[in-house]
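Side project, low priority. Logging it here so it doesn't get lost.
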Amino acid sequence: MKNLNLSVASSRIGIDVAEVSEIARMARTADPGIISNDDMQSLLGQSALVLDGLRTRPRYFDGRFLTGVDFSRDQDYVRQRQSDLARASGTGVVTGLRVSLGGASGGQTLVIQPGHGITPSGDLVMVTSARAVPLLDLASSRQLDVTFGLSELPSVPIGRRTGLFVLALRPVEFTANPIAAYPTRIDGPRQIQDGDIIEATSIDLIPYPEAGSVSLDDSRRAVARRLFLGAAHGLPQDALPLAMIALDKGTVRWIDVDLVRRETGTDTPLQVNMGARPRALSEAFVLQHRQHLADVLADRARAGLAPAFSAAQYFAALPAAGQMPAAAILPDNLGFRQMWFPPSVDVDVSFVPADEIAALVEESLALPPIDLLADPADLDATGVVVLAPVARSMLQRFESALAALSQPARSDPSQGLRRVPSQLLAQLVSRQIRLPQMRPAAPPALAANAQAQQQTQLWQTSWAEALAAIAPDASGVPLLWYVRRRAVAYDSQMIGLAVEAGDGDEALMLSVDARLQTLGLTAKLKDLVSRATPFAVARIYALLGLPRIAASTVLTASVVHDLAIAAPPADPAAPNPPPRLILPRPGVQLPPLQPKSAHLLEGDVIDITNRYDAPDAGDGLIALFAAQASDPLDNNAQLWIGGTGLAPDLDQAALHLAGDALTQFAASVRTLARKADDASAAALKTLIADAPGG
């Protein structure tokens, strides 16, 4: 009689399987605990019993001849059961295993903190103590690559590798401690065999499939969107990812831990059935975006760039809750405008108690992320609230002074809505804002406008006070939290001044073309458009259509000059232009001359826009020309000033002058502008630098 035992515990039912004749002889035909062979085969054929080849273990009994294979099967069974139980609690990092970059006399090192985790296949990996692994010592992984099937031959040494790599822990085992083995037959010789199987953890650098980007920073942007919005393609299933590392000829360019690191934990059946995102994935996206933003701000600070920029310049997707630079919310005469989110997104700014930020972020983790590359129609129903954390005492004071604790933030007019190129070429997108015409208003309208202006000033004062209380990050930039708002019905109260709507996108394009034709800059604009991407073209027209730019011949010529410098050469084989002769506005620097692409990119236009986004832009030039009213400059002289690239600096310098100093400064500028030669350009640069506001 054979016994089929399907358990390792007494709670699992044991089934006896025997021949029909044997069952009859034992008089157990009515016993439910015994089944005939024929019935068992029928049950297996109809899938009433489900077998798993990994759930078979040796059955021991007295008199059985045992071999080493039997005990190995027993160990494999136990290990498989342990892996199944480990996966039930979720795969990922259990504790520790943080990765950082260190340095030593021998070169860069990767520091891994002690901890343990579970691989997707259910194996336990651990690091018992902090390990500082020299990057060059990982060259031994070339042999492991061959062993693990990552490559047929050892590849390029790690000291010369470039690309993305996943730092992972892989479970391995090897035999050791040889002992004497007795012969298995009478005339057999004695042998020496390893007596132990030792389990270990291998630290590997696994190549990650390239995202087709031109640089490692662009690859980081694309990979983040792929992993957090799509599937985890390219991540190993037999190893535990700890961090993604970008190598540039063997040198670590950046380390992004949360891009591939996932904490253990399982989701509830309700979340799974409702199609919710895994909790660990949402949390990792928030942490990864936080670190990525810190790296971007540090890079911009080193380059002298302002912290006010669009998220689309460096990110392809945003988590449902995350951080953003406070400088991306800009006050203006109408209240606030934001340049962080796409114009399709409805953005509100709000004061909240600092101790409630964590709860608001927690509520937003279940919402989907914001895909910045999605069609604007998909973002039309997306709402975001930018949170300014304040103490409760300050919040109570704001609540008594303000009509509401939330206020809408308009999109920056220099941002163009993202559309497919065919639509963008047909109708360039921009949001044109016109100042209300100066005409007599009825007393009630004047009172309403005065009250709205007072509320706007109170809001901006309160906002500045709240930002001053926020501790800046490592790069010295205060950060705000934003949370995605659920798309449910809600009431909103609009606060601000009524403005006249623009005439539309085509009207703006025609207006800019007509303005540049009057100034003789049409040929230069056509050349820029021919070398720019469709999205960059949209931003070019949006920038040139700004009221403060369109109203000034000098600023219009200056924008065209800066765009021409930022654009790549018309002939890719032509050498780069000589260094620019301009002084950037304090805290702002133009992008480098060496183009990353064969076209003028949207990010390049945004960086140039930052040179002209000061609230008082153009006021200094107005004062300068007012001082020259008795002998004004003609269009050619003004175009020459704009063509020097010094217009923003001249504007700021004149803004700090008054009286006789301004009159004398204006006379010097007039003399140089009428000469309009290279020596005059150098002299103008010196004149600006020597001015109090230069």
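Brief comment: The chain has four domains: 2-87, 89-266, 288-485, 505-690.
Revisit when time allows.
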